[in-house]
Amino acid sequence: MRNLMIAGNWKMNKNYTEGVELAQGLADALAGKDLNGVEVVVCPPTVDLKGVSEVIDQTNAQFSLGAQNVYFEESGAFTGETAPSMLEAVNATYCIIGHSERRGYFGETDEDINKKAKALMTHGIVPISCCGEPLEVREAGKHVEFVVDQIKADTEGLEITDPSKYVIAYEPIWAIGTGKTATADDAQEVCGAIRETLAEIFGKETADGIRVLYGGSAKPGNIAELVAKPDVDGALVGGASLKAEDFSQMVIKAGE
Ligand code: PEP
């Protein structure tokens, strides 16, 4: 029903040359492997997108391309921003939106994230829309309602005709880049609540087709346990996506 997805978020790592090398290494590591239906995505920095796109074409790689951010306007005087049509032109299939680092450091709001999702979908690019609670919310036991509220705001007015074309990543902020992974049960609790919320908004059939990933210190050693949970459909991976060996291991283990 839902293919697992392992998506790598390189964040602000790997210059153009290094990015092309990493993409090439990943293409080699996955070449000829049976991934058991696991879909693989890499999200390099914007200036690396074209080079990674060329590696994907030239090697017929077993992964597709995602961006890390987009702006919701079509074009114009928005210095430093990237339009959805520009991502389309380099064959980006996916785009991360609402990552907690963008919410935290760059002041992105749920309203921005909702506009970005709509702009991407107009261009046929699949959003990987991130949500997740800070530590103090988790410690107060309010994490489920916090994330449910984010989902409601981020999806407001979206029309999802094909549920494979919208992806959510639940990333508890306290687990990102800290080495503190949420337990598989913690991930399931929130991913399950996200799916129930999606069912209320879009209906059960659509909700059952939307992939909900977990993100936060996911690595080769814990991926199998995470994806064994019924509502965890893969992972958004930061640190462990920066080495072709680790990332390809995660993909293989997720599919076993
Ligand atoms: C991320 O930034 O999306 C992420 C999950 O990072 P890490 O895997 O390094 O915790």
What spatial form do the alpha-carbon principal axes imply?
globular
CATH class bucket: Alpha Beta
Strand order of the largest sheet: 1-2-3-4-5-6-7-8
Separation of termini?
17 Å
Number of E-type strands:
8
Number of domains: 1
Share of β-strand residues = 5-15%
Radius of gyration based on Cα positions: 17 Å
Low-confidence stretches: none
CATH superfamily: Aldolase class I
Question: What ions, cofactors and ligands are bound?
Answer: phosphoenolpyruvate
Structural class: alpha/beta
Q: What would you note in describing this structure?
A:
By secondary structure, this protein is an alpha/beta fold. It has eleven helices and eight strands. An eight-stranded parallel beta barrel has the order 1-2-3-4-5-6-7-8, surrounded by five helices. The radius of gyration is 17 Å and the shape is globular. The chain has one domain: TIM Barrel (Alpha-Beta Barrel), CATH 3.20.20.70. It has helices at residues 16-30, 49-59, 84-89, 100-106, 110-122, 135-139, 143-154, 184-202, 204-209, 223-227, 244-255, and strands at residues 5-9, 39-43, 64-67, 94-97, 126-131, 167-170, 211-215, 234-237. Strand 7, helix 10 and strand 8 (234-237) form a beta-alpha-beta unit. The structure holds phosphoenolpyruvate.
